[in-house]
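Sequence dictates fold. Next comes a concrete instance:
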Amino acid sequence: MQAEGGDARADFVGGFAALDAMVRPRSVAIVGASDDATRIGGRPIAYMQKQGFAGTILPVNPNRATVQGLAAFNSVATLPQAPDVAIVAVPGEAAVQAVDDLGAKGCRAAVVFTAGFAEVDEAGAAMQDRLVAAARRHGMRLLGPNCLGLFNASINFYPIFSLSFEQGWPLRGNVGIASQSGAYGTHVFAVSRMRGIGTPVCITTGNEADVSLGEAIGWMAQAPEVEVICAYAEGIRESARFTAALDLARRNRKPVVLMKVGRSELGGHAAKSHTASIAGDDTITQAVLDEFGVVRASTTEQMLDIAYAATKRIYPVRNSLGVITVSGGAGVLISDAADAAGVPMPPLPEASQAHLRSLISFCAPRNPVDCTAQAVNQSELFPQFIETTAEGGYGSMMIFLTQTAGSTTLSPKLRPYMRAARERFADRLWVLCGIAPPEKVREYEDDGFLVFEDPTRAVGVIEAMGRYGDAFAAQAPEEIVVPQVKLPATTPTEAEGKRILARAGIPAVPEKPCGSADEAVAAAESFGYPVVAKILSPDILHKSEIGGVLLDLADADAVRAAHALLLARAAERAPGARIEGVLIARQIKGAVEMALGIARDPVFGPVAMVGLGGVFIEILKDVSFRRCPFGEAEAERMIRSLKGFPLLDGARGRPRADVKALASALAALSRFAAGADDRLLSVDVNPLLVLPEGQGAFAADAVIEVEAAS
């Protein structure tokens, strides 16, 4: 898989509506139409007729005059009109011919059920290539092959052969499903229906010979039928349309919750690059999802919890949680869950706490606010607890009522108070945790509450809604000017690598390559002692592994001895390496060691990394990743997200480090990587020495790994 270049937004945002003919057609042909409503070529016709698809249905079957009561046609050529879309349910080469015939007829899109293509063997892959070529000759779009199909219940369009509809049809709602797996996509639909979640659109992409998961998400991001997008991915086939779709969804305030399965390590050059060895495929995918505010789900339950909450379309910015509970134990559980999820629960103002104590002296009014059972037994007190807590300014509100929520004696008294508070504070996300019969739950939902039995699950969705809120409120990314980078023909030495990076905006520690001991001494004396000596070779990328770095050289004798020792070690431990001399560099003390890096992801292209440097990077793996390029503001956000950031921020009396200089170097590295071609395999700057505030940051070691020019 190769990363796609160019401006993804410019190339593809305008193109997502091109799938309208496939998802919102006025006519559909079925090649391989069956009179048997239980067969693959018969189910779509039966579904559409049963549900009342208003468009024209054109069965193609050379052996029958009618199919399921509809006039049939013996070939695509004899169709009375060019259909907007066609279902292809014939085997092998017949499917390829059908697509060619449909294109010649003027059909704009095809949903190819047929299996036996690239998912099987090389012969199948070759046949799939012919299928795609036939479609492209005529400007057709293909869904599949080897796909279950799609549905758009808003127009009763069902080009799909799933058995799911034997148990019920999609409910009214606004949640779209995009899935690479047909069976799992319809599984999500079926579970959604059981939970009362409406899913008007489901698109399954199969082999993705043409239409990809990204395009399915992109179509939903601009379609009025869909406000919330659930996606299932086994792997991202391409990047530009995928990221353009996520960008469009964010700009249109449509939350995307994605289940991404499959975890693996980057192959090839990963062993040579510290950055690549840390950045598995899944780590980089997660960084891309974070970039666009996509929330990742690990279970179907979690995915649908988030989708259910998102249907309220309330996304708190800088989210915080206020809790009213009748159980002190539940309050502790909720607090623990919120702390683990990173949802702040600031205390109520002292005046508000004093007011609540005046109502019930033994309540716990800090937050969570434990109003005790007294507040529900004296129900006239309950609204004061709710409203006083809501006045604390929290983005989300949770009321834990347990079985009281379903009580036939108490809930009728409490519900009007709750509804009034939600209406007064309509901009808040309101969650009720309680146990109640389904009909009672629906009443609370009609009042505007999300209802959960488990408060831990409720905290999870509250955190997710806050993430969406922050993503939707974020400023548009700054425009980045990417330079044209000319890479050397082969992997450069450390000294040359640092000269290249210095030109890109990443200054290096003062240093000089030396071909003799006398030159080394002269360089050391020009810098001032102590100095560092390193073996200089394009073939020894990680010098410390052969003892190729010597520190704290305090005088000329030490430099001469170091020069001889490094050459001897290189001859002994890397006998085949080309040796270009010894590098002498000023030794900087009092700096924080950081690491910057670039890994080239096979899908998303160059990805930048920042983390604690030196030996800690691979031990602690306290790192942050981001697609290239980006600016200084995003670079600083990455730096501040590190667990080790306090080391840069003056922890325990340390001087504050020059975070601005570090961010400038990281952003410059991202621009350099974006401007280089695919021969740039990786970059490691480790350590980057970050001096106290205002004194800069300097590369002490750097490796640029380049694929040799052909």
Summary: Residues 8-254 form a domain with the Rossmann fold fold (CATH 3.40.50.720). The chain has four domains: 8-254, 321-473, 510-586, 592-706. The first strand starts at residue 27 and ends at 31.
